[in-house]
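Last lecture ended with a question: if I hand you only a sequence, what can you say about the shape of the protein? Today we answer it with a concrete record. The protein is HTH merR-type domain-containing protein. Below, first the input exactly as provided, then the predicted structure, then a couple of comments.
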Amino acid sequence: MAVRTRPGGAPARGGAVDPPVTGGGTVVGREVMRMFLGIGDFARATGLTVKALRWYDEQGVLVPADVDPGTRYRRYSVGQLEQAGVVRALRAAGVPLAEVRIAVAAGGSPQQALHARREAVRVERAREDRALATAERVLAGTELRYEVRLRPARAQAWVGVVEYVATPGGGTEPAGAGAGAGARAGSGVAGGTVADADVAVEEALFDLYASLAADGITPSGPFWLDLGRPAADAGAEVALCLPLSAPVPEGWSVPGRRTIAGVRPAGRELTTDHPVTDDDPDDDTAVHPAFAALVRAAAERGLSIDLGTLRQHCPREVPDAPGSGTSGTAVELSVAVEGTHPTANKAIVDAGTSDT
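The predicted structure:
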């Protein structure tokens, strides 16, 4: 309240004089705000509970300005009100306590802590969106009727490179990591994102094509993904393979990449097509419904299949319906029956060193 005065300094009638400041306090209107607030008053002023303030003190996040040596009663300075507001806001935003402690300490940056939290939330939301989209695709896939075909498979020379692929949220690349049958490429690289995996797979395939071209070797058809590799950790090993008219020379390799080669023996295989759209998620961490259809068809026909031979072929255009005049995109999945295995006569080459 402003004080009205007459000339000479005497208070005007009806006016009021603020009380004198004592004990090191600060005058605010007619109220005296002390330089220190007890823990109860500080809790009321900040919206933090007394229990939370004690916890923040123990963790070194919000340490009282003064602690009575006898009673251990905590007192906070009025200058700590702003710091308490920052702590409360960061914790409400989900910033971990350890990061809050660093952010509010001398030289820390609350803005940087908030930015890091925002990025973590964005990544987690993207992962959740992919998981939801995958679940929707799997549920929709269970309603599709897959036409499973049994066909002869001729002997086929091939060569490929192996790329480690980690599922979202996975750890770092383990030695000898593998992929389970029914998984698909494009799930993140060494704990990275789906986009990271797409780039890594494309680069691996580019290196394979470039190395073959440099040696005058021309693939005899489109690539496929060899998905039948043992599961390990949170990741997978996916082999990107190209068919050849003849085996590559012994010891041939793609510089700097794990190279595999061999000849698929003649036999039989079960195949089916799975329609894909631009809306299909890249994160296929669940069992693919088309793969489940292959396994079910094998059981119904009394066939023995080798899950280590599961392949996903290059996407291709297929007619939507006979006479419709329209087409869509589909990927073919295949698996060998009666023990035919694509790794027969395989040579594994790491950085030019042969290990048969």
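Comments.
1. The chain has two domains: 26-108, 140-355.
2. The helical segments are 39-46, 50-58, 80-92, 97-104, 110-141, 194-214, 289-301.
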